[in-house]
Design goal:
eight-stranded mixed sheet; 7 helices; disordered C terminus; binds glycine
Length: about 400
Amino acid sequence: MHPRTSDVLVVGGGIIGLVTAWRAAQRGLRVALADPEPGGGAAQVAAGMLAAVTELHYGEETLLGLNLESARRYPDFVAELEDASGGVGTGYRACGTLAVALDADDRAHLRELHALQQRSGLASEWLTGRECRRLEPMLAPGVRGGLRVDGDHQVDPRRLAAALLAACERAGVVLHRAWARRLLVAGDRAAGAVLEDGTELGAAQVVLAAGSLSGRLDGVPRDVLPPVRPVKGQVLRLSVPAAYAPFLSRTVRAVVRGGQVYLVPRENGELVVGATSEELGWDTTVTAGGVYELLRDAHELVPGITELALTETRAGLRPGSPDNAPLLGPTRLPGLHLATGHYRNGVLLTPVTGEVMATVLTTGELPAEARAFAPGRFRSAAGAPSLSPAGVS
Ligand code: GLY
């Protein structure tokens, strides 16, 4: 028995690790969490779109079900969290989203997306360019049409992280502000982790929830290590003076020259512009090219952004998985669970991930809504990690 033992040790204190720790503690488990900077990670960069419908992609229909389920839970989730955190606001806004097209190619792409949304039974309305500009007068005159999706909302991920951290502290989660360096294995079970300073933390169950770093914990057997990789996203923050408000009343997004650009207006005047998507390993450099492309594309959509102050440029790492869907639940190593690989949907999937992981940790069972996302889907018959998923159609 290790001297410092809990029921659950969560490795990683981003929003996914924090929501797992909070929900597990609510169910009566003794929970510890290891992270040098709990509340940090990709949520400090993310825009916070809850875009189950406007970010629908071909081949991700199974993931759509989980995304919609989590979106459905969001209002109750933030109300409960704001209460449990002692009143930390999350910036949740049921503001809706407008996806627009700037030229004939964009419009054809958006028409395809609309058809896919309709086949999937999703609420989405086609608007002419004029109707789009009536909703959002700051849009460029050249906008050729768009999709109005009132069900795609937003939350402020930095405030969400702060609220989760406060809720964890109030629920008795023990925070260790250091990286876990190595998984402890005793017999055939995960038994805790060793921190950077050599401290050993024993635990009956361990959850690996370290975002894009989840594949790098020493001591995890190779065939259990999650196949996650970092996908860089550069994001800008601008500030809308009170005199210009409301600059935009909902999230506005488009595909410009093949790249996604979105503008997410917060109630406090912040306007978040994202995001690049770059396969560059662990690089988090903000580049002139990344900032230029985001501003150029955002300016084509909303020319008035050039009047705003540019207050922040930052890059974060999405935890990408081979099928763009998360890995949730038990691994082949008894006592070791995963909550990682959320890729573009970490903020959206926070409510459902917390519930799923708390159920797994208390009952050993993966709830029905998460079965398609079990980590074992990446194993080939020969036992080696596979790149062809079974669980996501
Ligand atoms: N979900 C937005 C992004 O990953 O850029």
